[in-house]
Specification:
The protein is mainly alpha-helical. It folds into three domains: 48 residues, no CATH class; 82 residues, Orthogonal Bundle (DNA polymerase, domain 1), CATH 1.10.150; 167 residues, hpI Integrase, Chain A, CATH 1.10.443.10. It contains 14 helices and eight strands. The strands form three sheets. Strands 1-2-3 form a three-stranded antiparallel β-sheet. Strands 4-5-8 form a three-stranded antiparallel β-sheet, with no helix packed on it. α3 packs antiparallel against α4, α3 packs across α6 and α12 packs antiparallel against α13.
Length: 372
């Protein structure tokens, strides 16, 4: 029998009533027997009135996903970086509230979440992005379980989408990099040179200070990042020292003439202040440059990928590339960029040319093997 006003969930009969464009979902507390299902279906109005009037059966009827989600994010912001809190909040408002915001927390069932995740995938979002969106909502529901508002997290048992395509890699070739740098000017040229030949993240680049630069030892200390005007540590919180390749040293010497005397940030905006992030550089300088050069638009972050693919394709030590990129280990670097590795044309086992394996008279001498 198909029921219109109730459904079984975890062995209990739940009301499931469309009302004024919304869905009201409440546990009746009745075991999901055939008789109880028929009874609730027939008497759904009386059951709903009883649940609304009986405060003890639903002690927190006004806790919606929207209200509780904001409370959860606020409660956890002290445990997260400021820009992470901001991203979580934006993700919640953009992707969770429009779908689940008006629902009661205990009204969400796994099938709702599966449908939502499938819709996100159909919209063209990457597996990594969907995973990050899921993390936000899943964490809020985990808090709801801890607070005793819902018995268990409905995300439990739901598999995630593949994140194999999480790295959106569209690197520039070395000739393209040359073309770009030959046509870039001023601070943009210096910025892009450092970006292409260090593999630093864009947030780390705009946070670079002259105190991090050691031209004598040809080293750069990477210890901070700027995102959304907020200065924090690096993505992993690790301070690393990287090599300053000759093109980078030359570019920084030129850049010093522009901003070095101020002794602060290496790259400054038109107002003499540090960039709030890479967005302004990308929108006002990077994108117009690619358009003028008739190159396909790619994000500024592709300079990092370009460094890695360029170095690996030219046979540089993967361990060194991994350290420059701040990967946990070289295997991560290889898993991301191995397809760009060019195998040299080398004749294998050339030593066999000097050995006459079968004792034939072919100009290499005879090889006699005694078997006893």
């Amino acid at each position: 029998m198909k029921y219109r006003y109730c459904r079984e969930r975890d062995g209990i009969v739940h009301l499931d009533i469309p009302l004024s464009g919304k869905r009201i979902r409440r546990s009746t507390g009745r075991p999901a027997t055939a008789a109880n299902m028929k009874y609730v279906e027939k008497n759904w109005q009386a059951e709903l009135e009883k649940l609304i009037s009986d405060k003890t059966s639903d002690p927190q009827p006004d806790i919606t996903v929207e209200a509780y989600g904001r409370r959860s994010l606020e409660a956890n912001k002290g445990f997260r970086k400021i820009h992470t809190t901001r991203e979580y909040s934006n993700t919640f408002e953009k992707h969770v509230v429009p779908v689940f915001g008006s629902l009661q927390l205990d009204a969400i069932v796994p099938s709702d979440l599966k449908a939502w995740l499938s819709k996100l995938q159909a919209s063209g979002l990457s597996g990594k992005r969907i995973h990050n969106i899921r993390i936000v909502f899943q964490g809020i529901l985990r808090d709801a379980v801890s607070d005793g508002i819902i018995p268990k997290n409905p995300f439990i048992g739901i598999k995630g989408f593949s994140r194999k395509a999480q790295h959106d890699i569209h690197p520039f070739t070395l000739p393209e990099i040359q073309y770009i740098l030959q046509n870039a000017e001023g601070k943009l040229k210096a910025f892009l040179t450092v970006a292409f030949f260090t593999g630093m993240r864009t947030g780390e680049l705009v946070a670079l200070k002259w105190s991090d630069i050691n031209l004598k030892s040809s080293k750069i200390t990477v210890q901070r990042s700027i995102r959304g005007s907020i200065e924090t540590g690096t993505k992993t919180g690790v301070v690393r020292t990287i090599d300053m390749l000759p093109p980078v040293a030359d570019a920084l010497k030129e850049q010093f003439k522009l901003t070095g005397l101020a002794g602060g940030y290496v790259f400054l905006n038109r107002y003499g202040k540090h960039y709030a992030g890479s967005t302004t550089l990308a929108n006002e300088h990077w994108a117009p440059l690619l358009k003028r050069l008739m190159l396909d638009h790619r994000t500024l972050y592709q300079t990092r990928h370009s460094f890695a693919t360029m170095m690996i394709s030219k046979g540089e030590d993967v361990i060194w590339v991994s350290k420059m990129m701040e990967h946990a280990n070289p295997s991560i670097t290889l898993s991301i960029y191995s397809k760009y590795r060019e195998e040299p044309v080398v004749k294998r086992a050339a030593f066999l040319d000097e050995i006459n394996l079968f004792g034939e008279k072919n100009g290499h001498g005879n090889c006699h093997v005694s078997v006893t």
